[in-house]
Design a protein that fits this description.
about 500 residues; about 0% strand; mainly alpha; 2 domains; globular
Length: about 500
């Protein structure tokens, strides 16, 4: 069940209405049933994996809590570490089998073939369970939080299961922390009209990002990247820039729908994006892009590795390891590893060259506090991000290299003006796409949180104006949304991760 589907358009109001009508003590049961049904709409069997991850991490939390009461401190610490290790081993083992087994076996087969050895590998034709990377990381963070005593072990298996499977953020985040979301499962939520209205508007904005911008840009991006070896460099540059728009609107759209849906019911989820393309460095970009994942890797991988509290060489190694693992998390393909490695390399080089840049600025008397300098920094960061996006979007390393080769050897800028692009995407569709992107930019420039500012402004207007805007939003989504045959909703990009 997709957020942009007719099924969800029926599912969500029914779940929300029933949630506020039934007694408080039974609400978590209703949300748990709804969440498991939501997940089973993809593949009923894979709900067993979700429950397995839930049960293992729940029991690990209980055992860690009991181990903490052992009088012998050394034995207590040892038992808790064993519980954490087993939780990680089982959960990451399941994740490895379904997501990385074939990738590793293909790599081993390629390595053995170099030595003239044929490796006969077993074939497992299994579908990647949707959202497995997200709920696995969310469940594992609970284990670590209990170990660190950031939260007490949850005694109620049902409420903990709801924390892992809460349907708005189950399959693509935001990856919530137990310290934030788990206590909300016990809160008494009342229906609040203004809050619900704000949540619905945020959901509408997310749908606009997804079906008006992302899905429209995807038509051109997919067509160009499918035959990147024969496309002009100019078309590939445009496709890459539009992919940056597509993946942002696709994932930010999902996050906004998830946050808005939770808000309607009274739950608070963390923001996942903060105008990432306005970043002045790669480090800042990752403070603004997929915030729930980047902070997860910071808190549960980078800092345990030593973080920045070590030598410069070790710090740079920690950064590279974190980004390489982040790339691998996104998919079982060497292209994702390269993408993550590039972001790590960009960040390391940015830090290492900082003294040199400062000295050059002093010598050349460049003022770094000017708007023009900040715009230059944003432009350079934007360029680096999109260079890495090529590897993220390309199916193979050879295709990615072929795209760069086409850009530098066969640019042909005239294709941008000779109407040949209209063969892929009609002229009217280009007008709609760029108009929608303009709206996106304006919303980002309005304020730090453009949507929140606009929603607050709208709430202060006369009722007739508000309803004109509401009806206008509905008309825009219905008329300019990209729909497949028989209204087949398109998947969100991050569902494959």
């Amino acid at each position: 069940m997709l957020f942009n589907s007719l099924q969800f358009l029926i599912f969500f109001p029914v779940v929300t209405l029933a949630y506020f009508l039934i007694p408080h003590r039974a609400r978590w049961v209703w949300l748990l049933i709804a969440s498991y049904y939501f997940y089973m709409c993809w593949n009923p069997l894979y709900v067993l994996l979700l429950f397995c991850s839930t049960l293992v991490t729940y029991l690990s939390g209980i055992l860690i809590g009991r181990a903490g009461r052992v009088e012998d401190e050394k034995r207590s610490v040892r038992l808790k570490k064993w519980c954490v290790a087993l939780s990680f081993l089982i959960n990451l083992g399941i994740l490895f089998f379904f997501k990385y087994f074939d990738f590793v076996m293909d790599g081993l087969a390629a390595a053995f073939s170099l030595a003239g050895i044929t490796l006969h590998q077993p074939a497992f034709d299994v579908l990647l369970p949707v959202g497995i990377s997200f709920y696995t990381f969310q469940a594992l963070s609970y284990t670590v939080d209990v170990y660190r005593k950031d939260i007490e072990p949850e005694c109620c298996l049902g409420r903990y299961a709801l924390f892992v499977s809460f349907f708005p953020q189950l399959v693509a985040g935001p990856i919530e922390r137990s310290t934030s979301l788990l206590p909300q499962m016990r809160e008494r939520h009342y229906f609040d009209g203004p809050r619900a209205k704000q949540g619905v508007l945020l959901m509408a904005w997310g749908l606009f990002q997804k079906i008006v911008i992302a899905d429209r840009a995807a038509i051109f991006v997919n067509a160009v990247y499918m035959r990147g070896d024969v496309q002009s460099g100019a078309a590939l540059v445009l496709a890459t820039l539009l992919f940056g728009v597509q993946i942002y609107c696709d994932f930010a759209g999902y996050s906004n729908i998830a946050i808005g849906a939770a808000q309607v019911m009274g739950f608070r989820l963390m923001d996942n994006f903060e105008r990432p393309y306005f970043s002045k460095s790669i480090r800042e970009f990752w403070r603004r892009w997929h915030i729930s994942l980047s902070t997860w890797f910071r808190d549960y991988l980078y800092i345990p590795l030593g973080g920045g509290r070590c030598s410069r060489a070790r710090r740079y190694l920690n950064v590279m390891v974190t980004f390489l693992v982040s790339g691998l998390w996104h998919g079982a393909n060497i292209t994702f590893v390269i993408w993550g490695g590039l972001h790590g390399l960009f960040q390391v080089l940015g830090d290492a060259l900082r003294p040199l840049r400062k000295k050059a600025a002093d010598v050349l008397k460049i003022r770094q506090d000017t708007t023009s300098h900040r715009l230059l920094q944003m432009g350079f960061t934007y360029l680096l991000v999109h260079i890495a996006w090529v590897f993220f979007r390309a199916d193979t390393v050879s295709r990615a290299c072929g795209i760069f080769r086409q850009i530098f050897t066969d640019f042909r800028p005239h294709v941008l003006f000779d109407q040949s692009l209209y063969m892929i995407l009609p002229r009217v569709e280009w007008y709609v796409l760029f108009a929608a992107i303009a709206v996106l930019v304006v919303m980002s420039l309005v304020k730090r949180d453009g949507t929140r500012h606009v929603r607050a402004w709208l709430e202060a207007q006369q009722i007739w104006l508000r309803w004109v805007v509401y009806m206008g939003i509905i008309i825009v989504l219905l008329v300019f949304g990209v729909y497949g045959p028989e209204f087949v909703a398109s998947d969100f990009i991050y569902f494959q991760f």
